[in-house]
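Annex B. Sample input.
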Amino acid sequence: MIETSTVTLPDFAAGAVNLASARLGAKGVFTTDEFFAPLERMLNDEPAWFDPTLYDDNGKYMDGWESRRKRVPGHDWSVIRLAMPGRIFGFDVDTRYFTGNYPPHCSIEAAFVTDGDPTEATDWVELVSKSPLGPSAQHFFENADREKVWTHLRLHIYPDGGVARLRVYGSAFFDWSKVAADEEIDLGYIFHGAKALAWSDAHYGHPDKILSPGRGTNMGDGWETKRRRGPGHDWAIIRLGHPGLIKRVIIDTHFYKGNYPDTCELLGAHLPSAGDTFSDADIAASETWKPIVARTKMQMDAEHLYEGDKVTNIGPVTHVRIAMHPDGGVMRLRLFGTKA
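Annex B, continued. Sample output.
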């Protein structure tokens, strides 16, 4: 089996979340045709792969969405429900491993649906006009309007063919004006706009996963680093969904039994003007951020709750740095507090 390697992402992907992530709940709700490969594969979070020996009942197995050869007028299209309402910065239409069966062109429309999925009465707005695609490549399209909020996309391919992955880079929309000043809320939840911006290592799992819903499904559903063979320790910097006062912290090592961190600590800072990329100097400075949870021993496969005098009130926080000593895996990080 061959897996792809990723290319350098465009600037619009910095600090963005994939709103079309199946892991976070994005769904394919309609397609005109998925004869060769179902729409749901196009939303998988893992990179596309190719096995030259693998076939199924309809022909060559392809890791993506693929329609049959169109023998009538028209073109194929699909409707995707985003994992969460969000603002869109740009797209990656990835045709990797589709070499003689990629669509020559695509276009993308978006809609906001208050409840449920689109109907025939839904108004669609074109975000990407009909644009050329090539074989086995990632195609990046920047979105000019980053303020409007969308819930669904309609991907058109002309006239037919296959797309390995669709990535929709943007930010989760959450109406913080509806959160009361004294209401406790998870400031580090990805659906509330939190995002991992920098990290030391993500060999077995991206740190964004620790901001996800639930307690996790298995050991692959958290942030895990490779075994550290030299000095130092692993860390990740998280941008909160809203500036806030952190009052209760959960560090969950669910499923991590022989690979949980020996100790963890949580630092914080108020950096309202910080961007979505951190320089080496910014990362070095994060080591001196103020302690919120002191370095403490971890246990395997357990929720570690810190509250009361175990959480230091350092004032309003926009970013946190979670550090694992020396390495290992964390399934979830919860940062409960009030908005500032």
